Amino acid sequence: MRHFGLIGRRLGHSFSRNYFSDKFLAEGIDASYELIELDDISKICALVKGDASLCGLNVTIPYKESVIPYLDELSSEAKAVGAVNCIAIKAGRMVGYNTDIEGIDATLNMMNITPNTKALVLGTGGASKAVAYILNRRNIPFMIVSRDAMRGDTTYDNLSAETITEHKLIINTTPLGMHPDVDSCPEVDYSAISSSHKIFDLVYNPEPTLFMRRCAMQGAKCLGGTAMLHCQAEASWRIWQQ
Length: 242
Fold this sequence. Notes:
The chain is α/β, with parallel strands linked by helices. Helices cover 32% and strands 22% of the residues. The strands form two sheets. It has a six-stranded mixed sheet. It has a six-stranded parallel sheet with strand order 9-8-7-10-11-12, sandwiched between helices.
């Protein structure tokens, strides 16, 4: 039996095991998928060495960037983004990929983004890097909002209502609102959000998040991370079959 799994620090929020377990059962695939919590990303080496049947891993918060030094090779897209969320393992050799790119691109297609739209990207982690990669590829101008003035284009404290009004696409790449912290959300001026805004929250558990609900109350059109999850999961599976 081939083994697959998801590595991260806290995985109680994850639907990945159920998604792949259901897929394996429905398609008659002799494989298993487990949630593997690591308190230190360096432990990935012992994990891979200790299970010869381990053929692939997904990677989530907070290891999408810090896993890279432990990999033997990166795909061109993962290298360009600087973040990895999928690892193919063959004979102990680990190759990193980024399937978030495909999931983000597919979700934006569903949102029918109009020309000349400007975007705000909330957060600066691995998922934010994948979002920035896609927005650049689509020629969508964007600003990155961070808690740290050294990491983004602006901070939440300096994010004005005028800037929010001007940027009609807002993408939350932070884990704010993710189970079990369902009562948290990005600290932005929600009164500046209107029916002309489109909101994409990468969080999928729960869906809708508090962020989505607050934006929807202002008339914004909101989409959560479930469609992205399904798309990137299937992209991971294709990679593991190569």
